[in-house]
């Protein structure tokens, strides 16, 4: 959500995270292309500042996401998913590796996403 404790108007998007990752997620760069199929594909870099319960610090990630919108009435999100690859880390996350996979909850039009994966610290 583009408000609250994690909001940063200097970046394309910022989100509060809950679950195994607690903290703030920031989209640093965003490059999107509309495909002929109507799917939007985006890539760029992100970073997470927060904790996993036992470790805290910053994770730097490279991502690729895709989403499709449609519907005659709402133009709502039909699907959205992406993966984020850890490319660097600081603090208690130093040396971390891993991949996270996100899937949007289309009933929230992508405002909520479930994630799973593994970050090895």
Note the main attributes of this structure.
121 residues, mainly beta, AOC barrel-like, eight-stranded antiparallel sheet, 0% helix, globular
What does this structure look like?
This protein is mainly β and 121 residues long. The chain has a single domain (13-120), classed as Beta Barrel (AOC barrel-like), CATH 2.40.350. It has strands at residues 13-17, 22-27, 31-34, 39-51, 56-69, 77-91, 97-104, 113-120. A hairpin with a 4-residue loop joins strand 4 and strand 5 (56-69). The model has no long low-confidence stretch (mean pLDDT 85).
**What is the H level of CATH, i.e. the homologous superfamily?**
SO1590-like
Estimate the strand proportion. over 45%
* Approximate shape: globular
Percentage of residues assigned to helices = under 10%
Helix-strand topology string: EEEEEEEE
Helix-strand makeup class = mainly beta
The termini sit apart by: 28 Å
- Gyration radius, rounded: 15 Å
Q: Which second-level CATH architecture applies?
A: Beta Barrel
Specify the CATH class: Mainly Beta
Total beta strands: 8
Query: How many distinct domains?
Result: 1
CATH topology: AOC barrel-like
Give the overall pLDDT as a whole number.
Answer: 85
Output the number of helix runs: 0
The biggest sheet, with number of strands, parallel, antiparallel or mixed sense and barrel status, is: 8 strands, antiparallel
Q: Which consecutive residue ranges, at least 5 long each, have pLDDT under 50?
A: none
């Amino acid at each position: 959500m583009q408000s609250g404790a994690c909001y940063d108007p200097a970046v394309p998007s910022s989100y509060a995270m809950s679950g195994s990752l607690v903290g703030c997620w920031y989209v640093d760069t965003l490059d999107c292309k509309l495909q002929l199929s109507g799917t939007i594909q985006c890539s760029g870099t992100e970073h997470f500042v927060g904790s996993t319960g036992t470790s805290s610090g910053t994770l730097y990630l490279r991502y690729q996401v895709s989403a499709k919108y449609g519907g005659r009435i709402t133009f709502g999100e039909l699907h959205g998913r992406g993966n984020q690859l850890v490319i660097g880390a600081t603090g208690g996350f130093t040396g971390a590796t891993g991949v996270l996979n996100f899937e949007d909850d289309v009933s929230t039009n992508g405002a909520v996403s479930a994630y799973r994966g593994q970050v090895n610290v």
